Amino acid sequence: NSRKMDEVHGSGGYDSDFSDGDEGGESSEGRKHEEEILQKPFQNSRHSKVAHRSFHSNEVDREEARNRRAHIISLNAFERHKKFVGDYILYYGGQMADFKRSVQNDLDVLRENHRFLWRDEDEEDMTWEKELAKKYYDKLFKEYCIADVSRYRENKFGFRWRTENEVVSGKGQFQCGNKHCESDEGLKSWEVNFAYVEHGEKRNALVKLRRINDITALICLIDLFF
């Protein structure tokens, strides 16, 4: 009878179908799952994560880059230029005098590179200074000249082409072509050979000039030929 009771209650060598073989009848996976269910949303995990050192270093680098960019943007063009030049010298070596800012303005560039007439050979090996002077030359009107004859007794004369404003006002065509004369009566056209020295080279050009038909004008123009 005792043997039969053991068989009924499972003590006769039969294992339970619900046993997982662990003490206490509960597995480690079950306990972990239960802990996740019971954990509150705002509760930190049992093992908090620690930021890696490289992550902190990258964040610091990004913050420094943002600060440098903000500083460079706040500078004007010339201040940025000085900063970049200073960084270049600091890294590659050299002297600040090699990067000294030129005080030459556009008018100085035009005076140094201006030509009364541009030829094909003048446009060889063009620099930005020459291109600036050529661009100004192309805007001039080359039919009549404006003359400066204030030093004609020294046999020195100055001629230049007219600007757009002078063409609109009629200066040099409907007014006397002398720089210091505004008369518009008794004008006569003269075509003379203008000999000049430019960039160390002697040149000449045939130009037209509107002048008053008087003795002073004739003397000036005669001096042009001799």
TrEMBL record:
Region (Disordered): 1-62
GO molecular function: phosphatase activity
Ranges annotated as biased composition (Acidic residues): 17-26
Compositionally skewed regions (Basic residues) per UniProt: 46-55
Basic and acidic residues composition-biased segments: 28-38
PANTHER family named in the record: ACID PHOSPHATASE-RELATED (PTHR11567), PROTEIN FRA10AC1 (PTHR11567:SF25)
Name by which UniProt lists this protein: FRA10A associated CGG repeat 1
